[in-house]
Amino acid sequence: MVHTSYALLPLFSLVAGIVANPVYLPPPLHIPLTRRANNRNASVERFASHAEHLRAKYGWSNSTLAKRQGKTVGVDIIDQAQDSSYIGTVSIGTPPQSFKVVLDTGSSDLWVAVADCLSCGQTPTFDPAQSSTLQAVTSNTGNTQQVTIRYGSGSVQGTLAQDTVSMAGFTVNPQTLLLVDRMTSGLLDGDVSGIMGLAFEALASTNAVPFWQALATDGQFSSPEISFWLARHLDDENPPDEQSGGVMTLGGTNSTLFTGDVEFVPLTTVGGSPTFWMLEMTGATVQGKTVSIPTGDAALSAIDTGTTLVGGPSDAVKAIYDAIPGSNPVPSMSGFFQYPCSTDVQVSFAFGGKSWPISSADMNLGRISSDQCVGGIFDLTLGSDVSGGGGNPTWVVGDTFLKNVYSVFRANPAAVGFAQLSDAAGGSSGACFSVCGRMA
To answer: What pTM did the predictor assign?
Structure first.
């Protein structure tokens, strides 16, 4: 049978055991991230297509407007296309076949292209015939189950299967995943083979428990957390195709990458079960002054490592750029704004507590003319009336913001936390200076 579902993409409770004696938990392991970079001279207008994909992903498209000891592991991240996406490596099958996948807290499915995939180009593919542990997932009638996942930037189709999946020493066996044999051309860049969704099971188009959630439930994590430091290379001159993109930590945090406390904000859920890593944005400042932004349902914000930019509701985005002298819409890029390149733009966001600044380097996507630069915050909803809510995020807070903080995604109790980056993680590039106080 064929199941068609629509994923919102380019994001448990844990069983707590009472033990008589303390259990030794080894320190967290930290996985470095790698980044693939494009030439800085590439046209900034490429971000317009990213924005349109994101609108479709979050329902704002133009058309619809036995338990183990827990541990913590650090994973090197690859930075792709000058901070456009952040990538990790996963192994599938027996013997293991390794692939690069986008690390996406904005979706929940794990999928990888297979050897007979159409429109996959030179993408490295998984060969099911070479895995002795692969099992097809069948329906009640004994037929293999096919699933289509539609993203803002295209779609994938394939068959459900179960196999051994490992990352940085963590293993889930069996893990349900989608073996993709049809993919929209251009959905993935370079030698990336799939996507690892890091949001909650309720969001999964495959109805599978996400890899990270299975690890947390199984007690393999020292702490039910995934943490990120995302490196910045947006303003590099002539960057290499791939370079270090930071660190994803599975099962805890890396205390060398942040200073002070992690400020946790409880997740906002719609309908009871968590889907996205969703918070309510409570305030914004521009050039040191508070700007008025919508509240309530119109402030629901998905915290999404798989998104390059920051998208928000029309009224809020307009208010932000109205506070930047000389800003105006970009005629050739729907929903984007430009401002004088000489302006040092300072924007900060709060999610219930501290106000976290975005580096002017991340706000500036590059020149669109000799003296005008494009801003990294765009109109996600394109004038739609979002006052009535409906549960979809109206803000999507991606890497333009997340590069400036140490971010922690905690399953139980469900929350997202932010902390100031340490000197080892770039320090002042994402530091909370005088504006990192309480919102007025």
So the answer is: 0.84
